[in-house]
Every structure is written in C-alpha cells, then in structure tokens.
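Can't paste images in this forum, so I'm doing it all in text. The chain is below; anyone willing to post the predicted structure tokens underneath?
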Amino acid sequence: MTSKFTELAIDCADPRGLARFWCAVLGYEVQDEGDGIVIIGSPEVPEGKNRPGPVPPTLTFAQVPEGKTLKNRLHIDVNPTDREQDEEVRRLLDLGARHADVGQGEQSWVVLADPEGNEFCVLAGRRP
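Text version of the structure:
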C-alpha cells in the first residue's frame, strides 16, 4: 500500500484572501471554512480523499502570526490549459501575483509570487 497526495497546507496571514487568489488561479472553489482556516479544492472531484486513484489535491490555508521570511523550499507549479504561458502570466499578474527572482536565471518557466509572497512557477507546456 502507498500514500497519495491529497492536500497541501499553506501558512498565511489572510486565509480568505489567499484562498480567493488560488481559487481564481486553479478554478477551485471553497470547500470548507473555519476559525482561521480555508480549504479549497477542485469542483470536479469534491470527494477526492475517498477516491482510490489520483486526485487533484486540496489546498488548506491556515492563519499564522508570523510572516514569510525566506524562499519557499516547496512550491507549486502550474500549467496553462487553454492559453499560452505569456497569456497565463498576464492573467495571474492581473489577479495579484507579481514577478519573483529566486536566482532562476533564464528558464522556460516564469517564477511568480502569490499575494503573500509564496513563489510558484508557470510552466511553458500546456496540459489538459
């Protein structure tokens, strides 16, 4: 038996605000909200944890008092599904992302940061 990746927990200052951003990025919806915690996930697979196969992971945003101080050691990569990379980067910047320099140099991916400074990459290849 193995484990499957079902959830990514992200510490933040504003769980609702960050959840709104990532819902817009991924096409997710809020699945649960409580005291300082917001959980978002794919509307296509609301029962994801109970499915035997791979599932889109949920993202859990938990409010913490301390701010982000260093480059993430773990980050999200996203692939545009219905537009080219440059169009997706523009869309994400319009949603509140900003360009980030983590020393990546010239690469095929674009590094952005979400509204709380968490780095993520927009890959060049489109994936359905």
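The first strand starts at residue 7 and ends at 12. The longest helix spans residues 15-26.
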